[in-house]
Amino acid sequence: MNATEKLIRSYYQAFNDKNIDLMLDLLVEDVTHDTNQGERTIGKKEFVNFMEEMDAFYDEHLDQITVMTNPEGLRASAEFVCHGVYKNTCPGLPAARGQKYVLPVGCFFDIRDGKIARITNYYNMNDWLKQVG
Questions:
Q1: β-bridge pairing 58-69 and 40-42
Q2: Interacting residues of 55 by C-beta distance below 8 A, sequence separation 6+
Q3: Beta-strand relationship, 58-69 and 75-86
Q4: Taking the complete model, does pTM exceed 0.90, yes or no?
Q5: Hey, where are the domains in the chain?
Q6: Phi-psi domain of 4 (left: phi exceeds 0; alpha: psi -120 through 50; beta: other)
Q7: pLDDT in tens, 59-110
Q8: Count helices and strands in the chain by DSSP H and E runs
Q9: Is residue 78 within 8 Å of residue 58, measured between CB atoms?
Q10: Quick one: how far is CA 18 from the chain centroid?
């Protein structure tokens, strides 16, 4: 396993452990975060805000994580399955009643100075809406 794969796996382990401090340690200060069908944000503060918002509405655990890297270790992608519970209603989305969902997710990364510089997530929003709606 190369250093970039270890970095990405550590990021997802920290996510599963709900260890935001470790996640932040793995990011550059000006990390770019592209959320699925959402806004692009830049910086650790914005990343923390996103994670806190996500935690308010969802409880998620990832498994079946596959990580791929380019030979230089400057780009990576991951595919995994997200198992979640929609625990509180997010504004603009269907009412939460503790619905469970399972989604395949893809994520793309840029790596700079041994840390994650960009995170771009994708999942099928229509599939999620069907599962919770």
A1: unpaired
A2: 18
A3: antiparallel
A4: yes
A5: 3-132
A6: alpha
A7: 999 999 999 999 999 999 999 999 999 999 999 999 999 999 999 999 999 9
A8: 4, 6
A9: no
A10: 12
Nearest 5°: the CA angle 114, 115, 117 is 125
Distance CA 31, CA 117 (A): 5
* Residue at token pair 């550590």: 10
For 53-64, b/e burial (b = at least 16 CB within 10 A) is eeeebbebebee
76 within 8 A of 70, measured Cβ to Cβ: yes
- What radius of gyration do the chain's Cα atoms show? 15
| DSSP structure string for 40-70 | EEESHHHHHHHHHHHHHHEEEEEEEEEEEE-
CATH topology of domain 3-132: Nuclear Transport Factor 2; Chain: A, (3.10.450)
